[in-house]
Specification:
By secondary structure, the chain is an alpha+beta fold. It contains 8 helices and 15 strands. Strand 12 and strand 13 form a beta hairpin. The longest helix is centred in the last third of the chain and has 22 residues. The N and C termini lie far apart (78 Å).
């Protein structure tokens, strides 16, 4: 991956920018930068407003002139690191891994080290180079706080073959999701397009026709649980960013613990069962990539893998089932007043 050259942007504020904060205005321009990155550049004096350095909170007026300077970026050199993951399968073409929650798949702004890629390099130094220097072997990704299965290509031929299967929707991807309910239907299908949120760059959203990419999520209710929670079996036929999280939240059933689409820990901590001490803490979105199936690039055999639930989700489900069993026991044996 080559270093990114310095870039310079010039903007003249029009009527719709009147009264808008400087950092918000720039985050809505087509620069490829997040609002936090823009705020960092402002602090470093890389944003000039009408000839002078400005604050992120500066309110713009129609006619204001803005200069934004983005310094060159040199990608870090990848070094093998001790990063936790479970190796489920390895052959000459590929690896299949069980990624724990809390691990980023590959280096990105804010996460230069401690990623899954660096852990894989400690195990296997020969990976496909198609993904670039920072993403060797990476065919698909999981969000940082989503646990579960990933396939990694060890050579370019395997990478290309697997990428074709993902693009064609031929890969089986099934997840377990603990959501807020109650969920009344036994199963369902969500076909709403997904695109960038119109104002929040790091957030995806269901978008009107033509404003996003086609996305298909199919779900089936696996288990109703105490407190209105529900365990869903979810499969996706497309691979849009945050697809399951966005679709389920839009349907009124956000994933428990999801900080972007389900109010994260705050909502969970308000739940009566947690406040009563019946549930363990929830430190991430309760989403696990449980099953993965694909055709092997060399043999042509269809392989299917399954990753057991991580301990945090097991603890949560045990606690919810215990509360439910206690409630059923009380209904079977009601107290008789003296």
């Amino acid at each position: 991956m080559k270093p990114e050259p310095a870039r310079t942007f010039y903007f003249q504020v029009l009527g719709e920018g009147n009264g808008v904060r400087l950092d918000l205005y720039l985050s809505q321009r087509d620069t490829g930068l997040s609002r936090s990155r823009i705020q960092s550049l402002i602090k470093k004096g890389r944003v000039i407003l009408n000839g002078h350095p400005a604050r992120a909170s500066a309110r713009l007026r129609e006619g204001d002139l803005i200069l934004l300077e983005i310094p060159p970026v040199t990608p870090p050199r990848l070094e093998p690191e001790a990063v936790p993951f479970q190796l489920l399968h390895e052959d000459r073409a590929l690896l299949v891994l069980n990624k724990p929650a809390g691990v980023v798949v590959h280096p990105a702004p804010g996460h230069p080290t401690g990623t899954l890629v660096q852990g894989i390099l400690r195990l296997c130094k020969d990976l496909s180079g198609i993904g670039g220097e920072l993403r060797p072997g990476i065919v698909h990704r999981l969000d940082k706080d989503t646990s579960g299965l990933l396939v990694v290509a060890k050579n370019d031929r395997a990478h290309a073959a697997l990428a074709r299967q993902f693009k064609a929707g031929e890969v089986t991807k099934r997840y377990l999701a603990l959501v807020y309910g109650p969920v009344k239907a036994a199963k369902g299908k969500i076909t709403l397009p997904i695109g960038r949120h119109p104002r929040k760059r790091k957030v995806m959203a269901v978008r009107p026709e033509g404003g996003g990419k086609a996305a298909l999520t199919v779900w089936e209710k696996r288990e109703n649980l105490a407190g209105g929670f529900c365990l869903l079996d979810v499969s996706i036929k497309t691979g849009r960013t945050h697809q399951i999280r966005v679709h389920l939240s839009h349907e009124g059933h956000p994933i428990v613990g999801d900080p972007l689409y389900g109010q994260g820990r705050a909502r969970f901590r308000r739940h009566p069962l947690y406040r009563a001490g019946h549930l363990p803490p929830c430190d991430r979105q309760m989403l696990h990539a449980e099953r993965l199936g694909f055709t092997h690039p060399d043999s042509g055999d269809f392989l299917e893998f399954r990753a057991p639930l991580p301990e945090d989700m097991k603890r949560m489900l045990r606690a919810l089932r215990a509360v439910g069993e206690e409630g059923r026991s009380r209904s079977r044996n009601p107290l008789v007043p003296c």
